[in-house]
């Protein structure tokens, strides 16, 4: 991966909240991440796609949904978001 692509993704991550990053990875239409696919490379590529295809206001709305599910949602939804959140923390160092 070119160094400029990594820097631009890192810059985009720096201005996003944990919930926005999880929402981008878990709720972007056309982006289907399975739990066994959450490798660093896949997570970076998926986030790049999600940030390019999702409007900032939509991402913000989805991040509110992520916060609600993480705080009191159905266990199966919450479990998936926790896995995605763990990948966000591992790959980008961003925590809730």
Report what the structure shows.
The structure is a single chain. By secondary structure, the chain is mainly α. It has one domain (3-92). Helix content is 74%, strand content 0%. The protein has helices spanning 3-14, 18-27, 40-53, 56-72, 75-92. The radius of gyration is 12 Å and the shape is globular.
Write out key terms for the chains shown.
single chain, 96 residues, mainly alpha
Q: How would you sum up this structure in a few lines?
A:
This protein is an all-alpha fold and 96 residues long. The protein is 74% helix and 0% strand.
SSE diagram, text form:
Layout: H1 3-14, H2 18-27, H3 40-53, H4 56-72, H5 75-92
Helix pairs in contact: 2-4, 2-5, 4-5
Stretches with pLDDT under 50, minimum 5 residues: 1-6
Question: Termini separation (Å)?
Answer: 28 Å
The overall pLDDT average reads: 88
Instruction: State the total count of DSSP E strands.
Output: 0
User: What's the total helix number?
Assistant: 5
How many structural domains?
1
- Described by its quaternary structure, the protein is single chain
**Helix share bin:** over 70%
Estimate what percentage of residues fall within beta strands.
under 5%
Name the overall outline.
globular
User: In sequence order, what are the helices and strands, one letter per element?
Assistant: HHHHH
Main sheet summary: none
Task: State the secondary-structure class.
Answer: mainly alpha
Q: What is the gyration radius calculated from CA atoms?
A: 12 Å
């Amino acid at each position: 991966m070119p160094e400029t692509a990594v820097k631009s993704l890192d810059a985009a991550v720096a201005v996003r909240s944990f919930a926005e990053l999880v929402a981008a990875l878990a709720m972007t239409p056309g982006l289907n991440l399975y739990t066994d696919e959450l490798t660093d490379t896949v997570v970076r590529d998926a986030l790049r796609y999600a940030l390019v295809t999702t409007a900032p206001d939509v991402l913000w709305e989805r991040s509110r949904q992520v916060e609600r599910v993480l705080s009191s949602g159905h266990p199966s939804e919450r479990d998936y978001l926790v896995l995605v959140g763990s990948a966000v923390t591992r790959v980008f160092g961003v925590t809730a």
